[in-house]
Amino acid sequence: MSFASRLLPSRNRVPELAPLHAAILSAMPVPVVLLDGENRFKYVNHAAEQFLGMSAASLSQVRLTDLVAEDNPLFLLIDQVRRTEATISDHDLTLESARLHKAGITVQGSPVPEEPNAVLLVMQDASAARALDRHLAFRGAARSVTGMAAILAHEVKNPLSGIRGAAQLLEASVGPEDRELAELIRDEADRIRALVDRMEAFGEKPIVRASVNIHRVLEHVRKLAQTGFAEHVRFHEHYDPSLPPVWGNRDQLVQVILNLVKNGVEAASQSSNHKPEITLTTGFQHGMRLAMPGTKQRLDLPLFVSVRDNGPGIPDDIRPHLFEPFVTSKAAGSGLGLALVAKIVGDHGGLIEVDSRPGRTDFRLHLPVVTEKDADQ
Questions:
Q1: Domains annotated on the chain, with CATH
Q2: 273: DSSP letter
Q3: Residue 173: is its pLDDT beyond 80?
Q4: Which end of the chain is more exposed for a tag (fewer CB within 10 A), N or C?
Q5: Residue 121: which of 113, 112, 130, 129 has the closest Cα?
């Protein structure tokens, strides 16, 4: 049976394949799309429906140009496939329109000899793999800060104490003009010591883990925020009440979520055109697997926590280095907050990723859940 004869000749919906082929394509975890010569959708599998955010029946009524701008490089790939009748791949594409926003997409286009001018597209979202690569790089950067913190604690804190003590003695024995300079020395010594104290948080200390209800962590952080720095912010909560507990350290998870919420509040408060909002979301999905630091054990990360703000987005020049130490867009920031977040999440065997555009920044944590082995400990 030819490929063309396996398509149902219907103009009202996306045609279906023979049962076996349909079952195979439907089970594929990557989006698969068949376009006709006018770039209409002739077939989409289930993953493609999710990827494009539309049902097969709806896609049968539109062209690809209704979802992606005509000047998108994707159409150059499609034209080249038709012209050369060869399989062609392109990487790191952005598919963006009012209906669609996908970045870091790899697309492979292939001709279908039995269906003239038809093009089969297989799309893969490479952003997750890049997020994992970046996360490993962030973990390495955090370890470098760990070593630096140990050196600073040993080599800097003791001299700072002496400098501060000398400045206090000077304050009591000099005139008003010189006393101001002595106060400046003391204040700067305190500031440097506070920076060293923050860096000491990167120390390699073992995590004391237990079963943690992530929703109690989120509620605790929300209450802290709304009674302090976020009293003017509107919170939205979308929780999955059926989630299993997280296998982690409750205090450290509070620190992570509080840091993300505080950053989100600061970002959302920058604009006077809207009211700042923070959206907290939890859910369960089969995610990535990651090796626990220092062991051969691999963890499933099916539970996710999302902290989203409606701020202006992260500047393009900072986004690739967001979790690296000393990188910040704040005038008075130290650039250690998100680096510490990445380290804590990494120490839990988890993963953090970020999706940012104007009007929306979403930090998503993928965390391990309690297993039977953990429960027996």
A1: 4-125 (3.30.450.20), 130-202 (1.10.287), 210-375 (3.30.565.10)
A2: S
A3: yes
A4: N
A5: 112
